[in-house]
Amino acid sequence: MHNVWFDSTLAWIGAHPVAAGLLVFLIAFCDALIILGAIVPALPLMIAIGVLIGMDKLSGPYAVTCAALGAFCGDGLSYWVGRRWGDGLRGVWPFRRYPRLLERGETLFRRNANKSLLIARYVGAVRPFVPAIAGMARMPLTRYVRISGIACLSWAVVFLLPGWALGQAYDAVAAVADKLVLALLGLIAALAIAWALVLYTWRWFAINADGLLARALHWSQRHPRLGKVVRSVVDPDRRESTSLLLLACCLFAFAWAWAWLSGSLLASGGPLLIDHDVYAFMFSLRNPLADRTMATLAALGSAPVLAIAFGTATLWLLWRRRWKAALHWIVAVAVGLGLTEALAIVVHMPRPPTAATGFGFPSIAVTMTTVVFGFFAVLIARELPGRQRVWPYLLTGVATALVGFARLYLGAHWLSDILGGMLLGAIWVLVIGIAYRRHSERSFWMPPLGWTFYGSFLLAAFWYAPRSAPATLALFEPPPPTRSLTLAQWQAHGSGAEDVRFDLEIAGDIDRLRQRLQHAGWQAQAPADWLAAVGLLDDDLPANARPVLPLALEAHPERLLLRRADPRDNARIELLRVWPAPARLDDDTPLWVARYDTMQLRQRLRLLTLWQPLPPVHALPSDLQALGSDTALKVRLHPR
């Protein structure tokens, strides 16, 4: 299901293949340039180009050549800049303000000059700077050209390969599981954003902590009254001053974001425009396989899972007599839950159409996931050595992103509910975290506590989440159609379903339809789950046992999926998908829409063997056309 922009892009590239190669050259060239390369998103752009190669819209050798030449020229210009200016670059912005931009590349270059040029090609943080450092170090030009040429060519091939693989499978996957792929890509994007926000925030503070601490102390000296509060948090004589400053800065940022979001919601009197847009987009991604996955992930923030993890960690702290830690831990969770429940009662936010009673602003599940994981990160992070301290915070970001995206996908909350839950949970974690860090000493060994908390969480999640998925999905069933048609209106104009191509509409009992077609040789396929989908990797699975992946119409999975083998070709089947119609008849007769396809079994990437739709035939089979002769069914055919 292509959108207009994607189709227009493909059409332009097909009409201008040479110009497309120049665009590939410019992307690789800009990615390699000193300074500019640090902000160019090369990886997603190269993957997109690879997809076009896999779809035969762009020549592979031509694209690889353009990418390699662009990278080689960009690296060469950076090398010339480094050779021309030498150490004078250190006094030029941004290197004067951010000297670590060059320091990381220099550290890599000193270890092994030749290998550094090869390694830097694949590491975005140093890729634009190492060629300049090679120029500053006066690396011989002939040696540089030889190594840079090899690095750029290998980089072009490696960075284009993932997209090429996706492009090879695009036609097959887009035809049968495009919404599933988009939903999973959205989940990956949410995890990547959460991971990047936590990681880069941590790194930025690690680099600038001393400067921020000095500024905070200088400001406290200039403002004696408020300065007392600042000095109580960032006392330079305390070992915890740097981490407390980090928590205080994050608290200020999250509090400002919470105030802005709350003010925007109060000003609008309800959900924001972006809330409706995101809800509509997520609703369009509903797919039976993704539904089950998201329902399972949503359960990670449920009360049973979080309570088991919280309870086991609390028992460990009490057993080890860590009274302060246990007290702050209990207060963090209890007050966080009470605060969220109180806000959900006080703030009357209209719920999404698919949300059941009990869901509102902010999301309790997201808030409590943030509180439980967030305070536990505050509890154990400072006891970990060096860079390992960021890991508990990264796990907090991942857990919150998983729960938030899953609930957003299911339609349990608006985007504002999810963001509000994250911000509220983070604010409370930072408040209680600062209080704990100021009054607690580093005194106990954390690995057993970490294994206890994360291990019990995983065990509870693996036990509870899959079992709760059916009940969760039942809460978020798409609403029944509200548009009512008379029989005459339906026969004259149809039900108006447009999101998925269909060939006939049926009014009547679906069991009667199944029986009628089974007598004609059709067989009903049970809904394919993830276990069946994984079976597509099995080359020895016979064609008649290979499932057809499900599709959804307006978030409704197929209510009936019928298939019939082609006697002339074992690798071809006929398929009929039947969904609930987006309208209903006024006499309460069930109304259905159906689509007929012929499917060919094809292998993609030597990994997946999928049923791929063939171009539509001009006429429906006679047994489908004859359904109208059954007095118990009324059928409306659509021209093909």
Report the average pLDDT across residues.
79
Number of domains: 3
Structural class: alpha+beta
Taking pLDDT < 50 over at least 5 consecutive residues as the criterion, the unreliable ranges are 1-5
The name of the CATH architecture of the largest domain is Up-down Bundle
| Biggest sheet architecture | 7 strands, antiparallel
- What's the alpha carbon Rg, rounded to whole Å? 30 Å
Please explain how this structure is put together.
With 640 residues, this protein is of the alpha+beta class. It has 3 domains: 4-176, no CATH class; 238-469, Vanadium-containing Chloroperoxidase, domain 1 (Up-down Bundle); 484-637, no CATH class. It is built from 22 helices and 11 strands. It has helices at 4-15, 17-32, 42-54, 60-85, 100-111, 113-120, 130-136, 141-222, 224-233, 241-268, 273-284, 288-298, 303-319, 323-346, 364-381, 390-410, 415-439, 447-475, 487-493, 510-519, 530-534, 622-625; strands spanning 484-485, 504-507, 523-524, 552-553, 556-557, 560-566, 569-580, 584-585, 591-604, 608-613, 634-637. The strands form 3 sheets. Strands 2, 3, 6, 7, 9, 10 and 11 form a 7-stranded antiparallel beta sheet that branches. Strand 9 (591-604) and strand 10 form a beta hairpin. The longest helix has 82 residues, at 141-222. The chain starts with a helix and ends with a strand. The model is unreliable at 1-5 (pLDDT under 50).
